[in-house]
Amino acid sequence: MKHFTLIILLLTPLSKALAQSPENGAWIFGEVYSIQPKENIRISLWNDAFEMANSEHPALDSIIPLNPPSLYAGTISQRSRDFNMEIPPNMLPAWIAFEDTLSGFSYGPYLISPSDSIKIKFDQIKQQVIFAGPARQSFEMSLGLSQLLERKLFEIPSMLDFSAQPAPRQELLDRFEANNKRFRRKVIPILTPRERLKKMNQTLPIFKEDEFALIEEFYRKRVPETVYNTLINDFISQVYFRIFYGFHGYYFRDIKESAPELLDTFAQSFLHLENQIDSLASKYLPLFSPNYIKMQEYRMLGRAAIEDKSVYEVSHLEADPGLREAVLTAHFLKRNVIIREGVSDLGKFLVEVQNPIFKERLETWYTASTPGLQVPDYAFKDEEGTNIRITDFEGKILLLNIWLTGCSSCRSFNEYHLTRIVQEYQNDPEVSIISLSLDQNRERWLRSKASGHYSPEESIHIWTGYEGNSTEHPYLKYFNITSAPQLQLIDQDGKLTGLGLDDKTYEGIRSEIENLKSHIKNQPNKTLSK
């Protein structure tokens, strides 16, 4: 009898959720089980696949307080805390993720649909996630596919990314960098061009895994068709994204330089992969898959490299007009694309865009990317907290170096290129060099500044002043700056010479500065500050 009563108590929240869920809305009941009871959990929700694909701010990003344990809520352990959350119909379907910000545990993302009711237990002691309720199998399928992919990727040697680490110790940074040097030296060149082509022609081993077949078959009739198709498509897209990314980033360039006689074979192999993904995409709908958008962009990058065309010129590879717009918008919103290719194709694409949200963003971006733009006058902070503005340097050529603690590329750029530039121009009255940190807090910025690893001491040091979310600074948002290192060169009138510098070497930067100085001196009515 006691056993029967306990079961009723555990199921009460689910039945209550079903009774109170609004039509086509969704209800989540969660439990966090840990040695040290938690106070809250962070919930992030994206109801736009494009925004999630581009790592943009979620539609919902909230810290949810956790409730003390109670029999009514079904949490009978003092180590448990629970929460419940109602998601309105206008925010569904969506991808939802959970994060324990104190311990670093993160879960998801999971796909949640209209009318879903789900109970989730995050067991941090056993390090597992348990689902219950009507939407249980949709969430279990998502978790199963995610774990399968993680296990397969774990078997592949890879670079270590530590740019998101909170104030990593120097010892840890050195260890990461040592690993990455070994990776570049020993892992990337390990395959000959012919071996790489052979690898391309093999059927992707992950789709031959018994576990994948079991997941696919088990959930086919247990999960709503639209959810099933979306989850399978997103999983497949993650696999092919990594393949297209690697082939575009390493394989094609290597074959072109060291074995050009294999280019035709490479193109045929790439076409074989494209046919595979087209067949799979026609079977499993990609409309709400963020990884499909990312995958298609890198597929287009690979095809563009093979045909020596631009991504815009091969964008017909995506037959769906809406998805094509999403892929191209994601592509053109990347700073490095505009820096490398200019705005010509972006201008052509703008004429075609039908999605009003994409069009508005691209028009703003097109204006911000045009050489000769007057730089917006926003304030930054120096060490003393004094406001520093770009207009404070009017009359001088200004090189703006944007960096971030933990960024290995920033350290390398500073060591081999920026330090030499600063040494050359530190006594030049015509040139000022500013180092702007993207760090999330002032203390981290000051520690890294003092170390000299990311910017020379002789440069002018500033910070956004935006605690916790530096990229929300209006200057960075205007120019879509979310990563480092980045460079901007501004003339003596406060106008941008271009969105950024493609050649970030000492020689390339020096050439750009000297060309600008020469251009200014050849204009009789222009004088520089002394």
Automatic annotation (TrEMBL):
<feature type="signal peptide">
    <location>
        <begin position="1"/>
        <end position="19"/>
    </location>
</feature>
<protein>
    <recommendedName>
        <fullName>Thioredoxin domain-containing protein</fullName>
    </recommendedName>
</protein>
<dbReference type="InterPro" id="IPR012336">
    <property type="entry name" value="Thioredoxin-like_fold"/>
</dbReference>
<dbReference type="InterPro" id="IPR036249">
    <property type="entry name" value="Thioredoxin-like_sf"/>
</dbReference>
<keyword id="KW-0732">Signal</keyword>
<dbReference type="Pfam" id="PF13905">
    <property type="entry name" value="Thioredoxin_8"/>
</dbReference>
<feature type="domain" description="Thioredoxin">
    <location>
        <begin position="369"/>
        <end position="525"/>
    </location>
</feature>
<dbReference type="InterPro" id="IPR013766">
    <property type="entry name" value="Thioredoxin_domain"/>
</dbReference>
<dbReference type="InterPro" id="IPR050553">
    <property type="entry name" value="Thioredoxin_ResA/DsbE_sf"/>
</dbReference>
